[in-house]
Amino acid sequence: MKPIVGYVYNTKMNKKLSVLVPYHKFHKKYKKLLVYKKIYIVSDFREEASEGDLVLIRLESSKYNKKLSLIKIFFKV
């Protein structure tokens, strides 16, 4: 899985984050660009990110473990 860039949406869980990832899709019939959003639960063991930060997340290297982990914080709020 390629790395995903998103915004920290919620930090109220213990060592976990909710990351909001917006993406765009083009509607064929109406010919409009629509914005969709998906929220991922990401593990953050160091608890260094706060709400509103721009972060890079990636799937961990384990084949059986489907967890996402925080890689880098691009912009701190």
TrEMBL record:
Cellular component per GO, a single term: ribosome
Entry keyword set: Ribonucleoprotein, Ribosomal protein
Pfam families found in the cross-reference section: Ribosomal_S17
Record flagged with keyword Chaperone: no
An MF annotation (GO) of this entry: structural constituent of ribosome
Cited Gene3D superfamilies: Nucleic acid-binding proteins
Family designation: Belongs to the universal ribosomal protein uS17 family.
Protein name as annotated: Ribosomal protein S17
Gene transcribed to yield this protein: rps17
